[in-house]
Design a protein that fits this description.
alpha/beta; seven-stranded mixed beta sheet
Length: about 220
């Protein structure tokens, strides 16, 4: 029996918990969310709306009562699916519920929005860059020297920052709009899962914020 994408993410989170102790609690919380998504991966929109109370109970059990108390409604789920912006707490509900659904249907509205991460995949003697949709995880090609937030293409205005402990993930920043995106280099680590490894390297996000950069788009945990 083959593993689902959620099983792969859960396994990756387990592997990273020991390697990234600063993100251990976050990764454990994500594992509970991924297990919930795996259990609800075949649901349609109406069934997802009916599972809102189940998600609320999960958040209470995992020690997130403030998040569980969010007044999230089926109408907000519809609005988010149609492309509306929500506040962070209701957006968390919407993304948890809709990620599995969006991954198996065409027409994800997030594919036209800003991505939460970039990937470098092997191609020929180099690597090609793609941007990852934060909702359905679809990838679309994107030039390596271009800011995904403002379109800046001047090389000198697009600094790259790396950290020794995360040698396969870098911060691609832009001095024009002061935004950044994490790029995960699969030529250096083919086991990386974009969402999970993004969460595990929260230290890079904290550093980037200290430098005055803003992430192009937050991940599932609003980070």
């Amino acid at each position: 029996m083959s593993l689902s994408r959620w099983d792969h993410r859960i396994a990756r989170a387990v592997d990273l918990e020991s390697a990234c102790p600063a993100a251990r609690d976050l990764l454990r919380f994500y594992r509970s969310i991924a297990a919930f998504q795996n259990d609800h991966a075949a649901q349609n929109l109406d069934e997802l709306k009916a599972s809102i109370p189940d998600l609320r109970c999960l958040l209470e059990r995992t020690g997130h009562p403030d998040l569980a108390a969010c007044e999230f409604t089926p109408a907000q789920l519809d609005a988010f699916w149609q492309g509306a912006d929500l506040d962070p707490a209701p957006e968390f509900f919407a993304r948890v519920l809709l990620e599995p659904y969006a991954a198996r249907v065409d027409g994800c509205p997030w594919c036209t929005r800003k991505p939460h991460a970039a990937l470098l995949r092997p191609e020929g003697h180099g690597a090609r860059r793609s941007l990852v949709c934060a909702l359905c995880f679809a990838e679309r090609p994107f030039p390596r020297v271009r800011c995904p937030a403002c379109g800046e293409e001047e090389f000198s205005k697009l600094p790259v920052y790396t950290a020794e402990e995360f040698n396969y993930i870098r911060i691609d920043a832009c001095e024009t709009c002061r935004c950044y995106i994490k790029t995960i280099d699969l030529t250096k680590n083919g086991l990386a899962e974009p969402l999970v490894d993004d969460l595990a390297t929260i230290a890079l996000d904290l550093w980037a914020r200290e430098q005055g950069y803003t992430k192009v788009a937050p991940n599932l945990m609003a980070l």
